[in-house]
Amino acid sequence: MSIDKFFIAVKTLNADANYTYQGNPPSTEEEYNNVNWITGVNEQGEDVFGNAPSGITWTAVKAEMDNL
Predict the structure, then answer these.
(1) pTM attached to this predicted model
(2) Rounded to an integer, what distance in angstroms lies between the CA atom of residue 28 and that of residue 39?
(3) CA 67, CA 46: separation in Å to the nearest integer?
(4) In what order do the strands lie in the sheet with 36-41?
(5) For residues 37 and 54, what is the distance between their CA atoms, to the nearest angstrom?
């Protein structure tokens, strides 16, 4: 699975979505569940993590990736 497919799929669903993950780009739901979604920045300039943005689910991301 190419990093470009995951990145493009997420950005297609929500251009403002930001995330981090360790290792290879997620290619299964289990790996997707380990993505850290960046929801903001605190006063110290550190990323704040939370839930995936609305509309971004493994099913939606996978469907977009399959279309690429």
Answers:
(1) 0.88
(2) 23
(3) 34
(4) 18-20, 36-41, 47-50
(5) 11
Q: Which residues pair with 38 in a beta bridge?
A: 18, 49
The model's confidence at residue 4, banded by pLDDT at 50, 70 and 90, is confident
CA distances from residue 40 to 4, 11, 15, 34, 49 in whole angstroms, order as listed: 23, 17, 15, 18, 7
CA distance 9 to 26: 11
d(CA 56, CA 9): 9
Q: Per-residue pLDDT tens for 30-68?
A: 999 999 999 999 999 999 999 999 999 999 999 999 999
